[in-house]
């Protein structure tokens, strides 16, 4: 099996400004048929999965300075006007916050850390249903 090398370049938006919230017909450029808002929404929501975080770490994305900068940029999703579009705002924003920490980016390689995050998610869902 061939070893995989870490990713070299992660394209960043031309601007550090969050994308416009869709309001209907838009002249915003499309990427594979989707707006930057839609692409970033889908990606940031994937961060709610501890298994996906582990996958990113195993591929060395969480060691790439450009990717780390992108994760920092994505913190705009914690603003209410954006957070309301998240399907799982609690774990998505919690994990996005944790990913800002170098130690967590290394620790998420551990099956124990992933298991703990998954258990916390189950407990939060049970508590939410019970309320």
TrEMBL record:
Region spans: Disordered: 1-31
Gene3D superfamilies for this protein: Mediator of RNA polymerase II, submodule Med31 (Soh1)
Gene Ontology biological process terms, A to Z: regulation of DNA-templated transcription
GO CC list: mediator complex
InterPro entries the UniProt entry points to: Med31_sf, Mediator_Med31
Presence of keyword Endoplasmic reticulum: no
Localization in the cell: Nucleus
Annotated keywords: Activator, Nucleus, Transcription, Transcription regulation
Gene Ontology molecular function terms on file: transcription coregulator activity
Primary subcellular site in the record, as a coarse category: nucleus
Membership in a protein family: Belongs to the Mediator complex subunit 31 family.
Function comment: Component of the Mediator complex, a coactivator involved in the regulated transcription of nearly all RNA polymerase II-dependent genes. Mediator functions as a bridge to convey information from gene-specific regulatory proteins to the basal RNA polymerase II transcription machinery. Mediator is recruited to promoters by direct interactions with regulatory proteins and serves as a scaffold for the assembly of a functional preinitiation complex with RNA polymerase II and the general transcription factors.
Self-association state and partner proteins as the record states: Component of the Mediator complex.
Name of the protein described by the UniProt record: Mediator of RNA polymerase II transcription subunit 31
Species in which this protein is naturally found: Lachnellula cervina
Name of the gene: soh1
């Amino acid at each position: 099996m061939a070893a995989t090398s870490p990713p070299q370049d992660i394209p960043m938006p031309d601007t550090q400004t969050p994308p416009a919230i869709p309001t209907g017909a838009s002249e915003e450029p499309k990427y594979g048929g989707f707006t930057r808002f839609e692409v970033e929404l889908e990606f940031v929501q994937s961060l709610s999965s501890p298994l996906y975080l582990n996958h990113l770490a195993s591929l060395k994305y969480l060691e790439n300075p450009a990717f780390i900068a992108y994760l920092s940029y994505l913190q705009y999703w914690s603003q209410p006007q954006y957070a309301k579009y998240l399907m799982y705002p609690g774990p998505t924003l919690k994990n996005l916050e944790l990913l800002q920490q170098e130690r967590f980016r290394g620790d998420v390689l551990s099956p124990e850390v992933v298991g703990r995050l998954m258990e916390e998610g189950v407990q939060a869902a049970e508590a939410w249903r019970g309320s």
